[in-house]
Write the structure tokens for this entry.
Amino acid sequence: MLLLLLLLLQLLGQVGWVLRHPATYVGRFGFGAFQVLFLPVLVTGTTLTTLYAGQSR
């Protein structure tokens, strides 16, 4: 469990770095890598927003 938490923190740190330096990341790894990195974030965010918006109040 601790290992999973450490991996999650490392991943969040890397994503944070990319958000602060997108031009450097794209220059180093290419735009395709940038898309692959953020596609799961966009899909998850969209799904959660849709589920939340569909809830009855």
Observations:
- The chain has a mean pLDDT of 83.
- The chain has three helices and no strands.
